[in-house]
Amino acid sequence: MKTRLLITLFLIPGMMAIQTGESFSQSEFRLQNDSTYLNVYDSNNESWELSGVVYNEYDLGLLINSVTANSDRIPTAMTEYIYQNTRLDELRSYSSINGSWTNDQHHSFFYDGNGLLAERLVMRWYNNAWVNLNKFAYSYDEDDRLIVYNREVWRNSVWTDLAADSSFYNEDGQLVERSARLKSTGEYLTRQLYQYDVQGRKNQQLRQDFINDEWININRTFYYYDNCGAPSFTETEQWLDGEWQTATRSEIFNSYEFGLNTDFIPVCLKGRTRYIPLESLDRFLTRGACPGECIEEAAESKGFTNADIQKDKACPFVVYPNPARERITVKMTDYTCPVTEIVLMDYYGRVIKTLFPRGSTELQIDLINLRKGNYILKLTADTVYSTIISKQ
Q1: What is the pLDDT of residues 41-76, one digit of tens each?
Q2: Of 389, 391, 345, 358, whose CA–CA distance to 264 is shortest?
């Protein structure tokens, strides 16, 4: 953990990217990173070998504790996260020495009137006392995006300017470059370059160091996700002898926390989003599904035609609001004619979501990830009904 924290001083914006679990969505479930298995590549045997594991603990969706263990599962480092309400207030790291936890570093976080991180003070444990180590000051643009943070070091009992880390964004607001330079000379030290996929997820990160007046490749990391967009694993390559060589791999294991009133959740199975009863989740997971909506929906083999719809009979349901921005509610109005399946489709007949009411008289359908436009809602009861849904 100590090594990771030292690297962090230049390469990430002051611990602001701490994973605290995704907040509850309209579907009432939250993603949490339970553990990450760290592996190194053995080029001689052409195989992966476990080098360590990071275990995370949460409370009400907030990361409160991380423990790093070695390949023998023996704890070597621990980090505690302390919050004021839901805002990170302190971070305390420890090292394991002879089986006992020993103080390592202490981070204090200070915020401005807008709730943005303004300053971070880092102290280290030395000679049985806390002493100053680093101080960081953060600046933002009008969109509250971090643009630069300055690092000072504690030397000869005074704070001394050391480096500035600047962030650059593309027209879509995505971070594309971060670079650090010495304040005394303006000379560059290191930089990170970022790339994204069509869904806006980071899929590659390249680190370069400025050596002998040129940027030299150091490593690059590739990010991989499951069909629902949750992080799955990363692979890092090192630049050695003029070529990229496989170095490390991190396998990410997640869990899901559900809201108290959750009855149905979305899952992605074989490229299709379905809404299923919560008690059926395990069965779908064993079939290869992931909790959440599909990032990319597979095309339906059969198109949607007007012959599939019975328009003359009164619908045994109402849909509201319509048009809608975030979600619609489907309420059953004829209990003698139960609805057994609800399918949301686009105009090409491709299935977006499938729900099974199973006796429920009212269901909500999230529209938040859909583009603006019209969609077809098809319900199966004594016959097939349909209505048009407008997403604003």
Answers
A1: 999 988 999 999 999 999 988 999 999 999 999 999
A2: 358
